[in-house]
Write a sequence for this structure.
């Protein structure tokens, strides 16, 4: 099976290739088949991408916000019209089941384009009087921004970065993850179709070295990365060298706290969503599930029953709820964590194996896995696994669980399940996390800021908060005279 790709890159409004670039094979994770082979960007491609972005940005920034917004909203409409085709592409590239990609990937990208398309006209400065004088501010674009994506939500990540960047009058060069290079190319095509000038949103392929070259180019004003903490450290250091703006959306090991008074079925549903959706490859997943001791046995019993019912298999079958992981390397890494969980003494309640799925013998599948009896010092409770592995930990008091939840270098997200409204708000006030959910998990509407604290990053995606990450304020003082000078 092959996926038709016009060219490896999309630069200056058109597909573009340079076969000199290192080959990047793209595999369908459900079967291991190569579905496309792209090329990494050569220096000539990188140059063309940045130069065309510089040019397009001037033209774009001169438009009124309402005109920029119109293009973004049109792009959102086209994305929705093509949702099925984009979802199938995303499923081939990531292995995530169509049941998910149909509702969570291009659909969420379209939401961001629509949201920032509607906001574009409202992006403006303020005015303030100072006696007879006054001052006003202008909210100006940064210039050319670089976006670098992870492989778990390729078109969503590209759209979440492009939408606020373009709404503010910037241009963008986007480098998808080398694991999932396909769908960002489609976003680039759609933006041109919607009326964006050629060069406004370029997509170039490559590994970390291509990302590194983009970041160190003096014409680049900002970099927004979605990736792991170790990559974040490198990209942040590279950006610091050129004093560039940064947004860092990094990894997590988020706590999900279930108090004894919670609606237990809802809490189990939230914990499953926050551990098994996208085969557990979600940065904000609540992978440390703290359950109050009094309800712990009942919680684990029902959790195991409901986990057993998960349908795993052919991602293109819409009845299938769980597909493979993105690659065999990721599957092996996650299997290594499962083995460590066993040897460090956690109780394996269910899963833990590579399932045998007829016709998909070479796929990167892992059964949804639940460990109970996990303690804070175990590796599976400390490190980001990025696979379908849930750790259940017991707790006795609110103070204790909040301290334990916060005892991590990460701070991306947190969840609380309880019927006690006072306790819910008290708990989220004390939790060190950029995004918290009460009686819900992993819902990320475009109108709510999303991002992390501590090692999970800084800057926010989505909502009006993202405007701060893609614009800068110019202050203009207007003297109405006479000039009060001592000379
Ligand atoms: P990764 O860090 O390996 O790679 C991310 C991107 O960075 C890729 O495009 C890669 O090519 C690029 N890259 C690698 N080295 C680079 C360098 N030196 N300079 C510039 N670019 C470089 O991450 P991944 O494995 O693709 O994704 C999984 C990670 O992403 C997890 O840690 C996950 O938590 C995180 N993530 C975070 C969010 C969020 O919003 N906070 C969302 C999704 C994923």
């Amino acid at each position: 099976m092959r996926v038709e790709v016009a060219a490896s890159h999309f630069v200056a409004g058109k597909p573009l290739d340079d076969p000199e670039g290192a080959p990047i094979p793209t595999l369908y994770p459900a079967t291991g088949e190569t579905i496309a082979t792209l090329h990494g960007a050569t220096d000539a491609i990188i140059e063309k991408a940045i130069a065309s972005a510089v040019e397009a940005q001037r033209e774009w920034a001169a438009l009124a916000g309402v005109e920029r917004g119109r293009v973004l909203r049109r792009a959102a409409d086209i994305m929705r019209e093509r949702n099925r085709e984009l979802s199938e592409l995303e499923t081939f590239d990531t292995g995530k089941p169509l049941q998910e990609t149909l509702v969570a990937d291009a659909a969420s990208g379209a939401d961001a384009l629509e949201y920032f398309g509607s906001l574009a006209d409202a992006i403006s400065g303020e005015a303030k009087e100072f006696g007879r004088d006054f001052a006003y501010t202008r909210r100006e674009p940064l210039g050319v921004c670089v976006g670098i994506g992870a492989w778990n939500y390729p078109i969503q990540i590209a759209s979440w970065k492009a939408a606020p960047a373009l709404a503010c009058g910037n241009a963008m060069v986007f480098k998808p993850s080398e694991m999932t290079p396909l769908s960002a190319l489609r976003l680039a095509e759609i933006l041109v179709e919607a009326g964006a000038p050629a060069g406004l949103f370029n997509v170039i392929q490559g590994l970390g070295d291509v990302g590194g070259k983009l970041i160190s180019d003096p014409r680049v004003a900002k970099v927004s990365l979605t990736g792991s903490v170790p990559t974040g450290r490198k990209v942040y250091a590279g950006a610091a060298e050129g004093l560039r703006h940064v947004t860092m959306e990094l990894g997590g090991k988020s706590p999900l706290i279930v108090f004894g008074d919670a609606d237990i079925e809802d809490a189990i549903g939230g914990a499953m969503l926050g551990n098994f959706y996208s085969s557990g490859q979600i940065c904000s997943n609540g992978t440390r599930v703290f359950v109050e001791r009094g309800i712990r046995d009942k919680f684990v019993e029902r959790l195991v029953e409901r986990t057993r019912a998960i349908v795993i298999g052919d991602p293109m079958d819409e009845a299938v709820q769980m597909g493979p992981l993105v690659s065999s390397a990721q599957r092996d890494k996650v299997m290594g964590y499962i083995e460590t969980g066993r040897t460090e003494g956690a109780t394996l309640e269910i899963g833990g194996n590579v399932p045998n799925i007829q016709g998909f013998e070479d796929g990167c599948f892992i059964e949804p896995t639940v460990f109970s009896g996990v303690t804070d010092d175990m590796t599976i409770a400390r490190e980001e696994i990025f696979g379908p592995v849930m750790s259940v930990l017991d707790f006795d008091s609110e103070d204790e669980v909040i301290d334990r939840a916060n005892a991590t270098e990460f701070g991306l997200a947190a969840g609380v399940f309880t019927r006690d409204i006072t306790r819910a708000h008290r708990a989220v006030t004390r939790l060190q996390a950029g995004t918290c959910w009460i009686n819900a998990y992993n819902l990320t509407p475009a109108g709510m800021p999303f991002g992390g604290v501590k090692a999970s990053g800084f800057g926010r995606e989505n909502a009006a908060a993202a405007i701060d990450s893609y614009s800068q304020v110019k202050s203009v003082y207007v003297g109405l005279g006479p000039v009060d000078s001592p000379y």
